[in-house]
Amino acid sequence: MGLPVKLVCAVNSNDIVHRMLSDGVFSVGESLLTIAPAMDVQIPYNMERIWYLVSDRDTKLVSALMKQFEESQSLPLPPTLLNQLRQTITKSCVVPDQDIRECLKKVWEEDAYLLCPHTATGVHLYENHSSLRLKRAIVLATASVMKFEQAVSEAGVEFPEFEKVSELMKMENRCLKMTKGQKWETILRTKIEEVTQNIFLKFNLNRQYF
C-alpha cells in the first residue's frame, strides 16, 4: 500500500546532505551565503527525521547518533543506515548560485514561468541528469518568487511588478510597543484575539462554528 517514492536531493553550496550521501559522513562545514537563503544551513533540522524513517523508526539509534553528532560535529554513519538512505535518496547534487541563475533564466525563456531560486535547484537537478529526464516529473515550488527580486534580476530576467505586493509595501507600518518585564505571550494572545474578533464582526461570522 502507499505510493512508491524515491527521492532526489538538490542543495545549494551548503552541501552537508550531498556530502553525507557521497562519503557517508554527516559533518558541519562552512556556512555560505547564497541566493537560496532558506538552504543556507549546515545542520538541516529534518535529517534526524529521515534517519528515523529509513531506520524503521529506530528511536534509540537516532538519539545516539544525534548525541554523537552534537558532541563532535562530525558523524560517520553506520553502514546499514547509509545504505538505507542511499536506497531512499537515489541521487543528489550541489547547485551553485550561477547554476541557479541560469536555470531560472532558462525556464523563464522557455516556459514563461518565473522560478524562485530554491525551486530552481530542484529543476536544475532534473534538467541536468539524463536518468531523470526520461521520466515525467513534478517539481513543487517551494517559495514565492515575489521575495527574490535580486536573484531574478541577477539572472538577467526583468522582475515584474506584483500589484498586491506593491500595495502591501505602501501600507502604514504598525507596531505595538512593549516595556521591560511585560509578558509577550499575553500581549500576542490579546492582539490575536482582538484581530480575530474584528474579522468576525467585519464579515458577520458566527464564532460558535469556528
Count every beta strand, where a strand is a DSSP E run of 2 or more residues. 4
Shape: globular
Which structural class best describes the helix and strand composition?
mainly alpha
Q: Distance between the terminal alpha carbons, to the nearest Å? A: 35 Å
Placed side by side, the strands forming the largest sheet appear as 1-4
- Radius of gyration equals 22 Å
Low-confidence stretches: none
Count up the helices: 10
Mean pLDDT: 90
Q: Give the biggest sheet.
A: 2 strands, parallel
Roughly what fraction of the amino acids lie in strands?
5-15%
The ordered string of helix (H) and strand (E) elements is: EHEHHEHEHHHHHH
State the helical fraction. 40-55%
Structure overview:
The chain is mainly α and 210 residues long. Helix content is 49%, strand content 8%. It is built from 10 helices and 4 strands, in the order βαβααβαβαααααα. It is globular, with a radius of gyration of 22 Å.
Essential attributes:
210 residues, mainly alpha, two-stranded parallel ribbon, two-stranded antiparallel ribbon, 4 strands
Outline the fold blueprint.
Blueprint: E1 7-11, H1 16-23, E2 25-27, H2 47-54, H3 59-72, E3 74-76, H4 79-88, E4 89-94, H5 97-111, H6 117-128, H7 130-133, H8 149-154, H9 163-169, H10 184-202
Parallel strand pairs: 1-4
Antiparallel strand pairs: 2-3
Write a brief caption for the model.
This protein has 210 residues and is mainly alpha-helical. 49% of the residues lie in helices and 8% in strands. It contains 10 helices and 4 strands.
